[in-house]
């Protein structure tokens, strides 16, 4: 380049670049191994998947776009597509919002670093291990599942459990089922004539501290009776007869019902006896309501077909909210503090500062986090595969899992599996394009 050309370039604000002989060939030599590796690991598998998606399950018959048509006509794959849309919309948004909240709030507390460490720790756990953890967390047995243990504890705080869940009378006894889990006497009762209401199938744990049952005394102006466990330990007892040593069933509600309306009620005492006013209860039928025998509340079926997808998304958020928090906290560290202080001096509240200054300034970082998580959830597989039980796996299905099941499952059809893989790639491309455009804009700035 001549001196005149150099001065012209400098006058236009350009830079003079000296070309080193052989530099292009040297750079190509360094890039060649990476390009070969990229072709072997990325380009070739994509090309092979596209070609394989045009053939049948055996790979010998050309079927054109039939696999793509079958993909959209299959109910299981449509469920997977619908669940994938839910994942893409919900999981990244919730993780990003939680990460933003954690990043902003931890700046206000002394132990913010320790809190960030705790929130970020799940990122050190593999998806497989996290799936095993949350399979136990969501177990419906409150003795094993943490989620149901908490839920049952809260429920039982505000709702009294049934005193004897599962208890019932003997067949052809004085009590008969009256609908809804309740039991009623077959005949109307009379004042001055004690009523015996024996039950069976009482759990041993519900009899701890129970006293021996006592025969109710006859009272002319009252309807009296006894409710007890008609079972003698060691055998030898008589059915429907109060034998010595048989246990009382205390705390049961006894109702007198006439014409479908409760006219009187009482609760059995510690010895199993009860008394109802004769002027109201005489001539009515006695009923033990279903609330006396309702099964104990067992919590929520988190891994049932209705809630399995939200439950698995919750485990994903538990893992990736820390990732979002760390990236957003790094962006927050670069926010000019003078802008925040100036807004506060001008009278803006903390919510206004957060909404109108902090969030707009963090928008580039939020977009990075959101796009990264969107690409990540499009590939979600292991969490769903490990957490969802076999009975709910179809309801929790996603495209990446369907790809595995179609290609390597019971009914192997690698043509259909390749079509799903190509479709999944097409879903990822727009997100990657948006991300590349954003990176180019950032470089221009």
TrEMBL record:
PROSITE patterns: ABC_TM1 (PS50928)
Residues spanning the membrane: 26-47, 85-105, 117-138, 317-336, 357-378, 416-436
Pfam family, one: BPD_transp_1
Gene3D superfamilies in UniProt: MetI-like
Domain ABC transmembrane type-1 positions: 81-435
Subcellular location as annotated: Cell membrane
PANTHER family attached to this UniProt entry: BLL4140 PROTEIN (PTHR43227), DIACETYLCHITOBIOSE UPTAKE SYSTEM PERMEASE PROTEIN DASB (PTHR43227:SF8)
Family: Belongs to the binding-protein-dependent transport system permease family.
Name of the molecule in the record: ABC transporter permease
Organism (species): Streptomyces kronopolitis
């Amino acid at each position: 380049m001549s001196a005149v050309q150099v001065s012209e370039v400098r006058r236009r604000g350009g830079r003079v670049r000296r070309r080193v002989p052989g530099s292009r060939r040297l750079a190509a030599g360094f890039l060649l191994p990476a390009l070969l590796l990229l072709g072997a690991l990325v380009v070739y598998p994509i090309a092979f998947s596209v070609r394989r998606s045009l053939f049948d399950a055996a790979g010998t018959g050309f079927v054109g776009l039939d696999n793509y048509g079958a993909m959209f006509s299959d109910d299981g794959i449509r469920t997977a597509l619908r669940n994938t849309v839910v994942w893409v919309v919900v999981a990244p948004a919730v993780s990003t919002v939680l990460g933003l909240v954690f990043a902003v709030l931890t700046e206000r507390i002394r132990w913010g670093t320790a809190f960030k460490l705790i929130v970020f720790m799940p990122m050190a756990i593999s998806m497989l291990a996290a799936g095993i953890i949350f399979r136990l967390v969501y177990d419906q047995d409150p003795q094993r599942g943490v989620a149901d243990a908490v839920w049952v504890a809260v429920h039982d705080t505000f709702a009294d459990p049934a005193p004897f869940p599962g208890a019932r009378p003997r067949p052809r006894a004085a009590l008969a089922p009256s609908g809804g889990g309740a039991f009623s006497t077959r005949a109307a009762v009379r004042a001055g004539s004690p009523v015996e209401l024996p039950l069976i199938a009482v759990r041993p744990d519900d009899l701890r501290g129970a006293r021996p049952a006592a025969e109710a005394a006859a009272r002319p102006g009252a309807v009296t009776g006894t409710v007890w466990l008609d079972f003698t330990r060691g055998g030898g007892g008589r059915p429907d007869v109060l034998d010595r040593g048989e246990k009382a069933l205390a705390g049961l509600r006894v109702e007198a019902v006439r014409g479908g309306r409760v006219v009187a009620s009482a609760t059995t005492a510690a010895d199993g006896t009860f008394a109802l006013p004769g002027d109201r209860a005489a001539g009515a039928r006695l009923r033990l309501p279903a609330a006396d025998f309702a099964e104990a509340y067992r919590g929520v079926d988190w891994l049932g077909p209705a809630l399995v997808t939200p439950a698995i998304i919750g485990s994903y958020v538990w893992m990736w909210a820390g990732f979002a928090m760390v990236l957003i906290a790094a962006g927050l560290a670069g926010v000019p503090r003078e802008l925040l202080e100036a807004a506060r001096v001008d009278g803006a509240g903390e919510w206004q500062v957060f909404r109108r200054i902090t969030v707009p300034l963090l928008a580039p970082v939020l977009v990075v986090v959101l796009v990264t998580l969107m690409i990540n959830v499009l590939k979600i597989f292991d969490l769903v595969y490990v957490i969802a039980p076999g009975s709910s796996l179809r309801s929790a299905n996603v495209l990446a899992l369907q790809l595995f099941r179609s290609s390597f499952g019971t009914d192997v059809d690698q043509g259909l599996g390749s079509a799903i893989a190509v479709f999944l790639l097409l879903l990822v491309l727009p997100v990657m394009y948006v991300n590349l455009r954003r990176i180019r804009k950032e470089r221009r700035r």
